[in-house]
Amino acid sequence: MYFVVVLLLFRTLSMVNSETWSLSYIYTALSKPVELPGIHEFTAMGLLNDKQIDYYDSVAKKKIPKQDWMREKLPADYWEKGTQSRKSKEQWFKVNVNILMDRMRHNNTDVHILQWKHGCEIDKQPDDTLKFIKGTDQYSYDGDDFLAFDDATMQWVAPVDQALPTKRKWDGVQILNQYTKGYLEKECVDWLSKFMAYGDKEFRRADSPPKVYAFAKKAKTAGHVRLTCMATGFYPKDVLMYIKKNGVQLTKQDGVQSDGVLPNDDETYQIRMSVQIPEADKETYECFVNHTTLKEPIWVKWDGKCCDCSQVTVVVIVAVVLVVLIVALVTSLLVLWKKGKICAGNTGALPPTEIQGSLNGNGNGAAILSMPVTTDGAISTSSDSGQGSKERLEREAMLTNEAIGE
Known about the structure:
The chain is α+β, with helices and mostly antiparallel strands. It is 34% helix and 28% strand. Helix 3 packs parallel to helix 10 (393-401). The two termini are 56 Å apart. Keywords: Glycoprotein, Immunoglobulin domain, Membrane, Signal, Transmembrane, Transmembrane helix.
């Protein structure tokens, strides 16, 4: 048992002290153009740590840098070759999105989307050595997984029947699968390492510790709440988070859900984990967070309160108070009317009382009440702009010649 505890502790510390970096490329093709600003029939971009570094679209037809250090460090022929590569891929996607529409028995009435993502992820160790974590090479159609490369077996995985013809065809070209594996584990990592050095200053910011919160809101299931642990504002990205019940870590089998680490607008990160529990649960729940900026982990205990569980009660109370106020106002007006201090209808030239003045618009109050309230809202749209790294033309050529269709 002692050995297991030491092993887990070592694993935890090594994960927190390492630094994760990723390089990926995303290509998106539409079956037909759409009349929306910033949305093009074909786009391609490169991402370093989820930050755009290059971009290409079917209108400009030019691969451009999105970071100053990319423009400064990489020669002109890098961008020229990159532009030619992206143009070839644009044609490849145009052919294959039509092939997939035929396979899926879709017509051109609706817009259909073919997307390809490939890249690699590494851990930068405290001694600056790079450890390969995983490679990604996957296709999706209309947002659903279509085909993915299994780096371990060097085989393509087809989650849908329509992808089987492509799987058989590509698995039949072993040199392509060998190259794909080599690209993910070696060439991609080499470029990632180079970009890490080029953009070192831009990608380094002051380390920031996480702020941790524990709260609960009413769940969709009656009689339950969703307990959430949130850590935000931390940098670098790597973090450990657990939800514990009476000191025991909860897992996915217990219903724990999380979207993983997500970026904030200020280049820090956040993570949320949640689990559904009975509203009347009186057990002890805690959020555990560890980060490289912390001398010791943070423990935040849930106070047992639900943020919005009493919302209905509050609405009822407010409604009752409003009814009481309205009844009181009507009663007062009736009393004044009976005493002859206010008039009903146009009965002559009696001088307006203070109440008449405000109700008839002689004061600021009436102007405010009668003034229409407008709220200007703007819909903000953003187009992904790219990132990129040098890609070997051999791989591009093989992919271009090996269409998804038969």
